[in-house]
Amino acid sequence: MKKEIDNFFLTILTVLITVIALSTLARAASVNSYISAHHYSPATITKQIWKGFPRYRYRHGKGKPEGVVIHETGNPSSTIFDEIAYMKKNYRNAFVHSFVDSNHIINIANTDYLCWGVGYPGNARFLQFEQTEMHSKKSFAHEVENAAYYTAYLLKSYHLKPNDAVYDGKGTVWSHGAVAKYLGGSDHTDPVGYYKRAGRKYFHKAYTMNQFYKLVLTNYDDM
Ligand SMILES: [Zn+2]
C-alpha cells in the first residue's frame, strides 16, 4: 500500500512538472508563435539612399560587413519618418543604414559602406538598423517580424551565416547591448529593454534577443 501511494504521488508530481514546463514554453514562444500563426508577410524593403552620408569602407573593405546590429531608438513618441529626418540632420553624431517599424523597412545609407551607430570598433564591422517604438500587440509583432526578416536578408545578401553573438560576443547577429558589452564603444543596451517591456505589455512575457535570433533563423531558412 505504501508503495502504491508513493507511485501515485510520483505520477501527480510528474504531471504537474510537465504542465508547468509546457505552459512556460508556450508563453516564452508567444511572440514568435503569434507571428507564425498569423502568417505575417514582411514589409517590402524600400531603398531611399540619402547621398549626404559619408562613405567609409569596413575594416575588411567595401561590401565586407561581418554581421548585423539591431537597435531601438529609445524614443516612445517618434515615427520612422521623424527618426529618418532627425538622422539626416545629425549624421555627424550618428547614423545607421536602415529603419524598421510595423509597416516599413527603409534603407537610407549604402550598406556597402560602414555607418556610425555603435562607436569603435563595431562601426567598422557591422550593418546596423534601428527599430522605432510600437504601441500595440499587432504592430509590435509586425515590427519584430520585419526586423528578423531584414536581418536574415542582410545576412544572405552578404553571404554571412547566422550565428548568435549575444551570449558569447562572437557571431553575426548582435544587439547594440552585446556590442557595448563585448567590444565597447558605448554603454547602450538596446533593444533589450524595449523588447522586454513590449513583450510584457502585449504578450505577458518579456521578448528576448534569444527569441529574436530564432525568428531570424526561421526567416533565413525560408529564403
Ligand atoms: Zn543602439
UniProtKB/TrEMBL annotation:
InterPro entries: Amidase/PGRP_sf, Amidase_domain
N-acetylmuramoyl-L-alanine amidase domain: residues covered: 53-192
Top-rank lineage group of the source organism: Bacteria
A Pfam cross-reference name: Amidase_2
Gene Ontology MF terms in the entry: N-acetylmuramoyl-L-alanine amidase activity
Signal peptide positions on this chain: none
Listed GO biological process terms: peptidoglycan catabolic process
Source organism: Lentilactobacillus farraginis DSM 18382 = JCM 14108
This protein's name: Internalin B
